[in-house]
Design brief:
By secondary structure, the protein is mostly beta strands. It has 3 helices and 10 strands. It has a 4-stranded antiparallel sheet. It has a 3-stranded antiparallel sheet with strand order 1-4-5. It is globular and about 50 Å long.
Length: 167
């Protein structure tokens, strides 16, 4: 019998995540509304800024989705982070997806034990918008969608109007 699960001598990361999952559920989400916000750079370019700072500003609970027993992960971006967006297409728009993703070698055999922010490139198709999300790429397991970014054909910078935060 362990008196308190996190104080026990055999507590491991899976046990700590089980406690987190029991408290907040396994669906994932932001630690606080408005956290990990994706915005345009001060000088617009083909990059976006991922918000960070305090746990409320940069914290997320990323669901574990490789197995039914995998619990959520608490992740924290402690400073703003710049993320490159791939060059636009010549004739059609696309919608890219900005995600927080967890790699856990004990579960996914990835050789990594970390979390990261990544961009899943969408397919270039006529009529892609932030409203219809046409052509978005598949989101990998153990990921939380933070935002969608509309990359119009022939653009050289991403502006606020082309970003839809959804986390």
């Amino acid at each position: 019998k362990v008196p308190w699960v996190l104080d026990g001598p055999a507590t491991d990361a899976q046990m700590a995540r089980a406690v987190l999952g029991a408290l907040v559920g396994s669906a994932g989400g932001l630690v606080a509304a408005g956290g990990l916000t994706v915005t345009q750079r001060g000088t617009p370019s083909m990059a976006v800024l991922i918000g960070g700072g305090t746990l409320a500003e940069g914290g997320a609970i990323v669901p574990g989705t490789f197995t039914t027993s995998q619990q959520p992960y608490l992740c924290w971006n402690d400073a703003n982070y710049e993320m490159a967006i791939a060059a636009s297409g010549a004739s059609n728009p696309r919608v890219d997806t900005v995600i927080a993703r967890v790699y856990d070698n004990a579960v996914d055999s990835s050789g990594k034990t970390e979390w990261t922010v990544a961009v899943v490139k969408g397919a270039e198709e006529p009529g892609c918008t932030l409203g219809n999300l046409k052509g978005v790429g598949a989101v990998p397991a153990s990921s939380l969608v933070l935002s969608y970014v509309l990359v119009e054909a022939k653009v050289t910078s991403i502006l606020t109007a082309s970003i839809k935060n959804v986390a």
